[in-house]
Amino acid sequence: MPADVAWNIALSALEELDFDHFVLDGYPRTIRQAIWLDNELGERGGVPFFLSLEVPDDVIVGRLSGRRMHPATGKIYHLEFSPPPKSVRAAELIQRPDDHPEAILNRLEVYHAETCPVKEHYRETGMIAEIDGQGNVDEVAARIQLVLRSLPKGQRKVGR
């Protein structure tokens, strides 16, 4: 997606929220996007704060490669964490191409090349929290909430 298209989508969403109390999931992904976001928020008195859920690559590959889709219903299952009901036969499930280990490893290469520098950018500004993303949903959510509650009020207005 061209940068200006992504920026316009992000800007429209942020304007709709009046630049107040939001989380951008998966954005910014590049230094260029981070600088744009910093400038846009800075013009409105906001400060971006970057949350990074840290999970080792091998765990990510295991999580994603275990996903299966039931084409008849569109439901997504995970072979270990959320298996299909007994009424759904294993032969009916498919693994999407982007959930194959090779595809996941390719996506991780892009992440390390393009997004890890964004984390470093926010480390330099002190506006980052790196959170252990392992464990169940409630455990990870509790860690995120702890970080968000600890932010000064002015920093609670914006996030990633």
Q: How would you characterize the overall build of this protein?
A:
This protein is mostly helical. The protein has a domain of 105 residues: Rossmann fold (3-Layer(aba) Sandwich), CATH 3.40.50.300. It is 47% helix and 11% strand. The chain has five helices and four strands; from the N terminus they run ααβαββαβα. Strands 1-4 form a two-stranded parallel ribbon. Strands 2-3 form a two-stranded antiparallel ribbon. Helix 3 packs across helix 4. The longest helix is centred in the C-terminal third of the chain and has 25 residues. It is globular. The C terminus is likely disordered.
Write out key terms for the chains shown.
160 residues; mainly alpha; 5 helices; 4 strands
Reconstruct the topology from this structure:
Blueprint: H1 3-16, H2 31-43, E1 50-54, H3 57-65, E2 67-70, E3 75-78, H4 101-125, E4 128-132, H5 137-150
Parallel strand pairs: 1-4
Antiparallel strand pairs: 2-3
Helix pairs in contact: 3-4
